[in-house]
Write a structure and sequence with these properties.
Blueprint: E1 4-7, H1 11-23, E2 30-31, H2 34-39, H3 41-45, E3 49-52, H4 66-76, E4 84-88, H5 93-101, E5 109-111, H6 116-126
Parallel strand pairs: 1-2, 1-3, 3-4, 4-5
C-alpha cells in the first residue's frame, strides 16, 4: 500500500477525494499548516508521494504561498525526490515556474476544483501504477 501525505488546510473540501484514494488502497495522512508539517517531517518524508496545496495558513505577507516554501524545504533540506502532485487554485505563471523548478511535472499540477477521476489517474501515474 502506498502512503501519500496530503498537505491541505481545508480538510472538508478534500474529504471525499481522500476517501476515494483510501478506497483505492492508499494511506493518506493529512496535514493542515506549516507547523503541522514541521512537527511531522519524518512521517512525511517516509511517504511515497505528496499532494500539496500552495496556499496554507497561517498566511504570511512575506510568504503567501507556503506550499512552495514547504516543497522547497523538502527538496533542498531533506532531498525529498519522490513525486509531488499539486492541487491549487493558484494559476499565476510565476508560481507554476517555481513549481517546475522544484521538480513538479506539469502533468502533476491540478487546478481546483479537481475532478476525482483526474486526481486518481494523476496519483497512479505519478507513482508508476497506471
Amino acid at each position: 500500500m502506498s502512503k501519500i501525505a496530503w498537505i491541505e488546510d481545508d480538510h472538508d473540501e478534500i474529504s471525499s477525494l481522500v476517501r476515494l484514494l483510501e478506497l483505492d488502497g492508499y494511506e493518506i495522512p493529512r496535514y493542515r499548516t506549516r507547523p503541522d508539517v514541521d512537527k511531522s517531517i519524518e512521517e512525511i518524508l517516509s511517504c511515497d508521494a505528496i499532494i500539496l496545496d500552495i496556499i496554507l495558513p497561517p498566511i504570511k505577507e512575506d510568504d503567501p504561498h507556503q506550499g512552495i516554501s514547504i516543497l522547497k524545504m523538502l527538496r533542498e533540506k531533506y532531498n525529498y525526490d519522490k513525486p509531488v502532485v499539486v492541487c491549487t487554485v493558484v494559476r499565476a505563471p510565476g508560481i507554476m515556474d517555481k513549481l517546475r523548478r522544484l521538480g513538479v511535472l506539469d502533468e502533476n499540477i491540478l487546478h481546483k476544483p479537481v475532478r476525482p477521476s483526474k486526481l486518481t489517474a494523476t496519483v497512479k501515474k505519478a507513482l508508476g501504477q497506471e
